[in-house]
What does this fold into?
Amino acid sequence: MARPPLRSSNSLDEAISRLRHATKRIMYAVAWARAVNETWRAFNRHEARQDVADSPASPAAHVYERATLDAQIMMVSRVFDAPGRGHILVQNRMSFSVCRELLALPGVTHRLLEESEDWNELGAENRDRLTARYHSFLEALSRLENEEPNRVRLVRGFRDENIAHDLRFDVLPQRPQYDHIHGLVDEASNLIGHLSMVSNGAVIHWGDADIQSSTTWMWSAVAEAQRRSS
It folds into this structure.
């Protein structure tokens, strides 16, 4: 895993700083994708969903449902973006593949391994833990990039056609399915878990239960209002 350091310690510091910044930005994006994913699921599983559909809130509920799905597509596409043009230290994309390239720069993983010894009382044993998470990150990302049908390409194609760019295709691309989108949110959560441990030695705790209960409460209140007015 470890490589000889970059020629300039400033370059090494910049690479690690960018890696940690990108990790934080990706974590925020994945956290948002998980939150909107849970609100979408909670709404579609809600026992009083038909009451909401029959209420004056129906148009707003439709917007809500579409917006939460679009938000998942945007966040998933963003965190799986390929690196842009220019050197990895001067571009502004923040994605898993960008982080992979930053980790591959000489000296970056060597420095992270050294720092891991100060995480806790395990000391040098943390090197093995970090190395294992690093390889798990690489393997999971490579598997997603090479799978067929490729969920990332399908979701990105839908974003390009319908959300971000409004592109026009002579032949419409294959559409992603709901489980492709939801599955990629889970995959991104797994990847950012590995990346957070590698770059910062930190474990992520998600607040899905709070989002679910809040969404359920909101739609229950709408359904109850509909029943009272009927």
In short: The chain has one domain: 9-224.
